[in-house]
Amino acid sequence: MEKIRPVDYDIHDLLRRRWSPRAFSDRTIEPAVMRRIFEAARWSASCFNEQPWRFIVGIRGAGDTYDRITAALSPGNQRWTHTAPVLVLICSKKTFTHNSKPNDWHVYDAGQAAAHLTVQAMSESVFVHQMAGFSADKARELFQVPADYEVVTAMAMGYAGDPAQLPEELHKSELSPGSRRPLSGSVFGEEWDTPPSFLDS
User: Fold this and answer.
1) How far apart are CA 92 and CA 145, in angstroms?
2) pTM
3) In Å, how far from its chain's centre is CA 155?
4) DSSP 8-state code for residue 164
5) Is residue 52 part of a domain?
6) Which letter does DSSP use for residue 28 in this model?
7) What is the pLDDT of residues 98-149, one digit of tens each?
8) Are 120 and 40 in contact (CB under 8 A)?
9) Would residue 112 count as lying in a domain?
């Protein structure tokens, strides 16, 4: 299934087609595709080039990492993530390596890496659904994540599947077109909550 976003201004097709499905096909993501997806994340920008992100990747049917990530997810997410061939936890280092001082931008930088990953995935027709519904404490315990790292988010990855395979209430949301507030509600100019002049043209 594909969704094309009803944008107000023309943007790259990869961004228009990006959305977060819950229904995934059982098709395996090829190793070469996986390498390109994570290579894109590797080249994301970061403060002092710290590259604070770390990815724990579980591939369904290969070892027990997939099952351990699943165990850290909320029950609501466990209802649908079993269809995804890949589950990922993103962790982020909280201090700078060069001076051991706190890195106040580590989560921001990990988010940028996730965005790079997501766009590259879309170029491969692989969809990413990022999740806040997980237990960071359980993930830390299951994977012995060092104290200097924060477990930031989880994600499911795979090729799009059939929404009909989802429970009824999730099936309905899967078909929703989605929406965003207008740019004028997020992009400000000379005063707070006042759009910049380029939105007038």
Assistant:
1) 10
2) 0.93
3) 5
4) G
5) yes
6) P
7) 999 999 999 999 999 999 999 999 999 999 999 999 999 999 999 999 999 9
8) yes
9) yes
Q: How far apart are CA 74 and CA 15, in angstroms?
A: 28
Q: Read off the pLDDT of each residue in 18-25 and give the average, rounded to a whole number.
A: 89
DSSP H helical ranges for 18-166: 31-42, 65-72, 75-81, 106-123, 136-143
**Residue 79 structural domain:** 21-199
In a domain, 168, yes or no: yes
Element at 115 (helix H, strand E) = helix 106-123
- Give the DSSP per-residue string, 166-179: S-HHHHHHHT----
Give the position of tokens 């890496």: 113
Token readout for 88 is: 């990922």
Alpha-carbon distance of 121 to 97, in angstroms, equals 29
Query: What's the whole-number mean pLDDT along residues 173-183?
Result: 82
Report the candidate in 150, 149, 80, 84 with the shortest Cα–Cα distance to residue 121. Answer: 84
Residue 9 falls inside a structural domain: no
Number of domains in the chain: 1
Place of tokens 């229904």: 23
CATH code of the domain covering residue 99: 3.40.109.10
